Amino acid sequence: MTRVSRRHFLGSLGAAGASLALTTGTVGFGQVENDVQAASAIVPFEGTHQAGIDTPAQERMFTAAFDLTTDRLDDVQAMLKNWTDAARRMCAGEPAGPVSGSPYLPPADTGEAIGLSPANLTVTVGFGPGFFERDGQDRFGLKAHRPEALIDLPAFASDELDPEHSGGDLIVQACADDAQVTFHAIHNLARIARGIAVIRWSQLGFGRTSSTSRTQETPRNLMGFKDGTNNIKTEDDDLMREQVWVGSSDQPAWMRGGTYMVARRIRMLIEVWDRSSLADQEQTFGRDKVTGAPLGQSGEFTMVDLDARDAKGNLVIPERAHIRLASHTTLNGVRILRRGYSFADGMDIRTGQLDTGLVFICFQREPAKQFVPMQRNLARDNLNEYIKHTGSGIYAIPPGVQPGGYWGQTLFEG
Amino acid sequence: MTRVSRRHFLGSLGAAGASLALTTGTVGFGQVENDVQAASAIVPFEGTHQAGIDTPAQERMFTAAFDLTTDRLDDVQAMLKNWTDAARRMCAGEPAGPVSGSPYLPPADTGEAIGLSPANLTVTVGFGPGFFERDGQDRFGLKAHRPEALIDLPAFASDELDPEHSGGDLIVQACADDAQVTFHAIHNLARIARGIAVIRWSQLGFGRTSSTSRTQETPRNLMGFKDGTNNIKTEDDDLMREQVWVGSSDQPAWMRGGTYMVARRIRMLIEVWDRSSLADQEQTFGRDKVTGAPLGQSGEFTMVDLDARDAKGNLVIPERAHIRLASHTTLNGVRILRRGYSFADGMDIRTGQLDTGLVFICFQREPAKQFVPMQRNLARDNLNEYIKHTGSGIYAIPPGVQPGGYWGQTLFEG
């Protein structure tokens, strides 16, 4: 665990080590690390694409949607520049700004990540529909720049959406292998946003539910199943180009190299699920609970045979099984990059049940042709008996930041 | 990270490895682990005391309070036996029961921890006042056994208690180095409790805020400060015996080897805190923000000098600084074992602020002489400007389970 390593490192040097580490922002060298990604525990902040999308999914997430409270475009642009500078530092393992500046001013870093590893922190920023227009008003003069692909999502069968967990003019997704590092990132951006934007909703994801790289095992969701085995992997260059990244001839030009995020807060009714039989559970997903293999197959990664029938002529993967309805085979080759996390937010006081489930986050080139038909297809999913969607958001994720650049630069200056 | 190690192990053996691991419940051997506690990643379940108290604080916590819905003592005793059996297995890294039993029955384990390390899981159980009597009614014939030390907590100055985050007939604290392992433990005990008890409140703690062993660095809270530097450490045998464990001549006899837990959900108003100056923040805690040293000292572990005065004759540690008021020096030697975690539960919709802070959990021999006077002393704490207590609970933690025994055996059979 990178956190423990960092502590040992600091402990071995004492207070002098702590201040050294704070200054350089790079620690952990000389350590034996058994975490795949931990060589430096730093994911490059700059690049063609924003980090946190094709980065192998980190273990923890803290994501917040913000609403803009200013009516001045200059404020928004200035905040995005300040956010970029702070995030660039935090992703390098440095404080967002000096902790010990003037004693008479608030610290320019909130301090809770001092002494922690960079933990592969990534911070990914996007713009919701409200960034471009609100109630039809061209609030910042950006309405003409709203991408056609940034649709207003239609209603879906399993929607029980709560406005308090939905929408937002901006999204900030922080992922890392240490929850406190993700919290620290959002905390500092919220501090910097003061007077310009406020958090609309925030969501802690305590464990990743997606494998986005061939170096990772498929994790289990809180229903105990491996799901998303056939997710796009970041190593699949052709699929990433075709299904995820906005292409070099796509419009608008400022979005090239970017992508679109759809976030769905999916409550799992685990108390009901836990009372269903093993056979029901496996027929619902279409997979063996223990091995993760498609029903009728022996290995998790064996190709799903949607046409296979048993001796009685019945489909081995049921008509309404989740893996059938979510399969790109069923969806004419349409795929998405899933990058979700489990959540546990205490109790749903209306029902006395655990308020727990999956923050489903996906990235794609064109939501209207990818998430929307997939989610429509899932209206027939037997899984709907055990889940409900309680939050929803869609965001345009601009391309990566260049050295010296800032989030949204292609929009503001393109 | 133990979770990653476990995955690699499983990955290297493939599906055969997965089923082997599931059967034996012990994995990770042959791995190079850099986590202090990870040698086997198993904390012994049985012993004089319950685990999860003097265990070096693990990184993650998921805790739930339950209310009993049965009116039969036999049901309660049977549930505690079933809970013990399941927890004994889970703490050994095994499923709570067979996942693949009959296809026609619900699985006896919910499955989401298959393939994960035991991650030093501990499960600690206690009894709230309602276990012994509710509204003055001797609901299970246990009223005469209620320990005098299990008081009803008085009201405190910073209380803004929410019944939805307070109380409970039973408490179950699960701690581990993997959040999913803690969730899995509570999830399965809730499943087993069906018809006898329901969850009243649950709380995820995403990062530990206490050091309870000399092998651990002092972590930072979400205000960015090291707090609890002078916490009792499990290596302090004399202090543990004197301040934490119910002694061999204490009453009632069934509690000997046990302790008392006080849990307080403390909201931090971090938006306000973030706007206060560095000097204000440091004067509030009485420590340097970066080094954690007491004001006027240079090292975190330098003895706090509460009488020190500066050149102008002013106290270096202010009169109302947190470390002064919480110090055992100020409290006639009274101490507690702190074992808390940070939480982030989305937004407080009433204020639009982050619903975040500290789940303060402490263990002690006699709350009326330890937590209560300490918390009363903190009524004058400058920190109260930035916090409020939104949840509260007190629980009698019975002694450890013996081989073949169960939680509460000394009460039921003593």
Descriptors:
homodimer; 414 residues; alpha+beta; six-stranded antiparallel beta sheet; 10 helices; globular
Mind explaining what this structure looks like?
2 copies of one chain form a homodimer. The first copy, chain A, is an alpha+beta fold. Chain A has one domain. The first copy, chain A, contains 10 helices and 10 strands. In chain A, the strands form 2 sheets. In chain A, strands 5, 6, 7, 8, 9 and 10 form a 6-stranded antiparallel sheet that branches. In chain A, a hairpin with a 4-residue loop joins β8 and β9. In chain A, α2 runs antiparallel to α4. The longest helix of chain A has 23 residues. The radius of gyration of chain A is 22 Å and the shape is globular. The two termini of chain A are 42 Å apart. The interface between A and B is large, with 93 and 93 residues.
- Proportion of residues in β-strands of chain A: 15-25%
- The best one-word shape of chain A is globular
When the domains of chain A are counted, the total is 1
Rg of chain A, alpha carbons = 22 Å
How much helical structure, as a percent, in the residues of chain A? 10-25%
Largest sheet of chain A: 6 strands, antiparallel
Q: How far apart, in Å, are the first and last alpha carbons of chain A? A: 42 Å
Quaternary organization: homodimer
Mean pLDDT of chain A: 90
How many strand segments of chain A? Answer: 10
Structural class of chain A: alpha+beta
Helix-strand sequence of chain A: HEHEHEHEEHEHHHEEEHEH
